[in-house]
Specification:
By secondary structure, this protein is mostly beta strands. It has helices at 3-16, 53-56, 372-376, 384-405, 474-482, and strands spanning 69-85, 92-109, 113-125, 132-145, 148-155, 190-199, 202-209, 226-228, 242-250, 254-264, 269-275, 284-289, 292-304, 308-319, 332-343, 346-357, 412-424, 429-438, 444-453, 458-468, 484-492. Helix content is 11%, strand content 46%. The radius of gyration is 24 Å and the shape is globular. The two termini are 24 Å apart.
């Protein structure tokens, strides 16, 4: 179906519906109960768009609907401009400029279930995204079957209770190339089946992802010798699906969960495809390659009266055959402990983050790097020892690159994050910032943002996304590509 056809259908549906106003979202059983998103309990990173209509700036009243049928139609139109430093130059350049229309339709049928669809139409100049983009953000159906809730379709799955950085969340991939003031827009949806079983005070969640969707990083700058080949991702077979289980405990004083996951990791590594000899110039072809992992996680949240809220999260990750697999990280343990407190109108979340890598060793690249000129002087078939020497040299370089991609440049890492938000002028002006600093690798990021609400329907925002770090770090590699300031004007309906 074309984008134009989708819009016409949505508009026709809205104009054709008559009768009493539907109850606002949240009244009655119009979503799979509060246990659906136990981690979305605060203003954390990536949580905004998961709350649906609140992000779109929905109108206060739902659209009219027949008796027993609730329909909510919301959306926004926005225009964004991103400007940053040109790669390898001190000059400024437009990183991205786009206009976007978002339409979100939700239909509720009494106590039986509901359906949600959200589509985004974008016209963009600059950046790595295509000039015209139709993005089906989410499209799923919920069924309410007594103590069981079932959700099937294209959806975003978020686990964890920490703010911004969730070690237990290994289901949903991300796209760092996405330019948006809404941090959650970097998450990518996938086809999934989710089942919740209510055993109060326990609830059990099961997730199955039959297809693989990879996380996306800014394009690397390979040398003239190196090029990318087709990625080595799992075929769409049932045996390649990802399965996960999460058990939640919900008590008046605290919430906690234990989880287990097995399947392909969202963030792939780099692997050697092949190399050529006897050509001028010779070539090395590498590919993004997925790997299988086990992940065991724990998370909790509680409150110390009215003083503060405390959140914690930890996950142990075990990639299969990591010693023999060039494109897989080493096993590691990631953990987060944070406090959430208000100081008058200012809301503050401070966290300590850590990572311990098991069986760690520094990957410094090959002792004898491949000489492109030497490759041109050989012809196939190569002697076995020479073939192994060249392959080993290339894979040693890839192991060093993958150690950067997987943020495992040290055995033990210590990090801290702080998020602050300060509403002012009767909530018409809001200043916020998210900062992260890695004390071990000296990488850091900063997301400052200022939002002014012109009216109930219109707002404008300015801010920046800044990455920095040493040249051999992940943030150091992407800083010139992603760092930029932005301005946005948005009209919600």
């Amino acid at each position: 179906m074309s984008a134009r056809g989708f819009i016409l259908i949505c508009l026709s549906l809205c104009l054709a519906v008559e009768g009493k106003a539907a109850p606002p979202l949240g009244e009655g059983r119009d979503q799979p109960s509060p246990k659906v998103e136990p981690g979305a309990d605060g203003p954390g990173l990536f949580e905004q768009s998961l709350q649906g209509a609140s992000v779109a700036g929905a109108a206060p009243d739902s659209i009219s609907a027949p008796r027993g049928l609730g329909v909510s139609f919301t959306g926004y139109a926005r225009s964004d401009l991103y400007v940053g430093k040109a790669v390898g130059s001190d000059a400024a350049e437009v990183k991205a400029a786009y206009g976007e229309l978002m339409l979100r339709l939700e239909v509720n049928k009494d106590e039986y279930g509901n359906a949600v669809a959200e589509v985004r139409l974008r016209s963009q100049a600059g950046g790595e995204a295509p000039n015209a983009l139709v993005d089906l953000r989410e499209a799923y159906v919920n069924a309410y079957l007594g103590p069981i809730d079932l959700r099937v379709g294209h959806q975003i799955v978020v686990w964890g209770r920490a703010d911004a950085f969730n070690p237990t969340n290994n289901l949903t991939p991300f796209d760092l190339r996405t330019r948006s003031p809404i941090e959650d827009d970097r998450r990518l949806a996938n086809v999934a089946a989710r089942l919740w079983v209510d055993l109060a005070p326990l609830s059990v969640e099961m997730v199955w992802l039959p297809l693989y969707v990879p996380a996306e990083l800014p394009a690397l700058e390979p040398s003239e010798l190196v090029s990318f080949s087709e990625p080595a991702f799992p075929a769409p077979n049932l045996s390649n699906g990802l399965g996960a289980l999460r058990v939640n405990l919900e008590l008046p004083a605290m919430e906690a969960a234990a989880s287990y996951l097995h399947g392909y990791a969202p963030l792939p590594g780099l692997a050697l495809s092949d190399f050529s000899v006897g050509e001028e110039p010779p070539g090395i072809r590498i590919a993004r390659a997925a790997y299988v992992q086990h992940v065991v996680g724990l998370d909790f949240s509680t409150a110390l009266g009215d003083l503060m809220a405390i959140r914690g999260e930890a996950a142990y990750r075990l990639p299969l055959d990591h010693r023999q697999t060039v494109h897989a990280p080493r096993p590691d343990l990631q953990y987060v402990l944070g406090v959430d407190r208000g100081f008058g109108p200012i809301h503050l979340i401070a966290q300590y983050l850590g990572r311990y890598v098991f069986d760690w060793q520094a990957e410094r690249g090959p002792e004898d790097p491949v000489d492109p000129g030497a490759l041109a002087g050989f012809t196939r078939p190569l002697p076995l020892l020479l073939d192994q020497m060249i392959t080993g040299s290339i894979e040693a370089e890839l192991r060093a690159r993958n150690q950067v991609i997987f943020s495992q440049r040290a055995r033990v890492q210590h990090l801290a994050s702080v998020r602050a938000e300060w509403p002012m002028l009767h909530d018409t002006l809001s200043a916020s910032a998210l900062g992260l600093f890695n004390f071990t690798t000296r990488e850091w990021l900063l997301y400052p943002k200022l939002v002014y609400r012109i009216s109930d329907w219109m707002s404008t925002s300015v801010g920046a996304e800044i990455y920095a770090g040493p040249e051999d770090s992940l943030f150091g590699l992407i800083d010139e590509t992603l760092s930029a300031g932005y301005a946005e004007l948005r009209l919600s309906f």
